[in-house]
Amino acid sequence: MSVAGESGGRAQQMRAKVQEMKDAAERTSDPEERKRLMDKARRLQEQSEQESRMGNRGMDPME
Fold this sequence. Notes:
Blueprint: H1 3-27, H2 31-56
């Protein structure tokens, strides 16, 4: 598998994990647990977006 395919797969896995955390946060009745899950989901989403931007750089042979 190419590096681009690997990073794309990783990004997809991270997005799925973010959605799982958000869903779990919506289901929990504990406000502290909900906040913890949402914060963790937000951090993971930011990391995913950053990795995606870093991965996209260098893929263009014209750069």
